[in-house]
Amino acid sequence: MAFNVVNGWTVPGFTHDRELGSGASGRVMLATDDLTSTKVAIKYLDAALVGDEAFLTGFRAAARRLSQVEDPNVVDLYDFVETPDGAAIVMQHAEGVSLRRVLAAQGPTGPLAALSMLGGALLGLAAAHDRDVVHGAMRPANIIIDANGNARLTDFATAPAGTEAQAGPQYAAPELWDGAPATVATDLYAATAIFYECLTGRPPYAGRNMARLHREAPIPADEVPGPLRDLIRQGLAKDPAQRPPSVADYLGALEDAAVSAYGPSWEAQGRGRLTELAAQAAAQPEPPKPKPARISGRNPITAAGKQGRGGSRTRWILTAAAAVVVVGAGAGATTLLRGDESPPPDPAPAQSSSPQPSLPIGGVDPAPLVAQIDQAVAQAPGAQFTYRQTGCCGFPATAKGTFGLAQDGQPSYTLTLASTGAARKPVRALIVDDRLYVRVGRQWKASALGGRGYPAAADQVRQGSSVANLTALLRSATTLTKEEPTETGTIYEGEAPADKLVQAPGIGTVYAQMTQATGAEQIAFAIKLDPDYRPTAFWVRAGPEDGRNQTMRGSYSKWGRKPPVQAPRAA
């Protein structure tokens, strides 16, 4: 009963399971969505923040932009709920342990794990900065290390303007102490200070007058390994103009330093070490919670008030930019793709009590369905898209942008693309015919699809996000079921044999990689179609749900005729 309410209320539609943590900005609860049974984290904002209209106005705008961020290094924000009883942030429940706990339990991480952490944190910042959101008060407590060694950022923009330095004093840039607003440069400073702590076991500055230390004390670069000192000097520069001008520039410097010092496999080794440290920290008793930093004017939490009532809550399972994010280890494909308000329907019966032997198990005939998809897409041959491939065994890729279908059905793309290792930095790119064009400064660099790095990631994106991939899954299905249609569309869920997909023209390579890495014989999938039979989201998995697997997921929106993508003049 102690967890039923926080500060007198509960976000409508959720049941609390337990408390995950608390701090100056509020308490975080693990909760279950009453409609989908999905686990989420809910941060109930402190009464002082709820009463700060200037903060709320700014955070409402930031929350709208953050809800559109879909990045493996950012904890997804689903909804910002306000009622007469309070305000709360509904977000993804990211399994893992905080970097603060890792450092408290294990001490310094070593250079490779520290570099991996910094790279992941910078990628998360880049995704948010692209939406004009700065974090403001980064510290180890709001970096989550998950079971795969990903550094995931949370608590963006929760420090009111003017309080960022007090919220994270050991990581606050000099200009924050002078009252300047939080910026990209202050985020880079904080990320570097955390990087320094991973390397040495302590923040770069500690003492009674933190403002003076950040403004005047020498940068302690000599305390870290020699190849990494320039990164510390750049990121902790007193003058924000002397720090890297963007996250992308700092990522480039990080990659150069890491490869030069530790070789091209630095990222895989660092991620592996970070994974080990997080697992060891999670296995140890949780250390006592430090006293939370106090924000000026903060009021104590009370238990007065009534159970939350009224207040609409936007459904977040299938938002425009986070269409198919895996929210919990037990989330099934149908839960991921459902985007309506209606309760989950009973399993759909087979279309006929005596289905034809040629039909897949489940009774859905894929042939007319594929024909309807092809016809719908031919009438609107282009869309905005997101795509992500993740899993146990390498070759990850993320992309977002637009594509258009040519006469032969081969899509051409304009997109932002990232992968891992040397291709970790997000880049602007085009895919035309069988070539990738990457923007480098003012010039375009061209290369054939496939191989390694960006060309390999681009080939994965083109195959995995293509409509041809979805229709091949349907045609090959040995099991295919259909949910009851809703106002937002219909979900089809099934399985297809891997050996058949490996032979499919135009998409076989990506399935060959997935099945070789996981040993999967069947490919599980779910596809959501809008009422006009245009795809809006998909989810594909090779391997078991809990175990060695590879997953593709993506979304489509704004179907229509797109102008053809022209190949640029490459240098």
TrEMBL record:
Ranges of Low complexity composition bias in the record: 349-360
Enzyme class: transferase
Record's signal peptide: none
Residue numbers spanned by region Disordered: 278-312, 335-365, 542-571
Record: residues binding ATP: K43
Pfam families: Pkinase
Alphabetical keyword list: ATP-binding, Kinase, Nucleotide-binding, Serine/threonine-protein kinase, Transferase
Domain Protein kinase, residue spans: 14-259
InterPro entries listed in its UniProt record: Kinase-like_dom_sf, LolA/LolB/LppX, Prot_kinase_dom, Protein_kinase_ATP_BS
Gene3D superfamilies per UniProt: 2.50.20.20, Phosphorylase Kinase, domain 1, Transferase(Phosphotransferase) domain 1
Xref: SUPFAM superfamilies: Prokaryotic lipoproteins and lipoprotein localization factors (SSF89392), Protein kinase-like (PK-like) (SSF56112)
Gene Ontology molecular function, alphabetical: ATP binding; protein serine/threonine kinase activity
Source superkingdom: Bacteria
Enzyme nomenclature, EC number: 2.7.11.1
Protein name: non-specific serine/threonine protein kinase
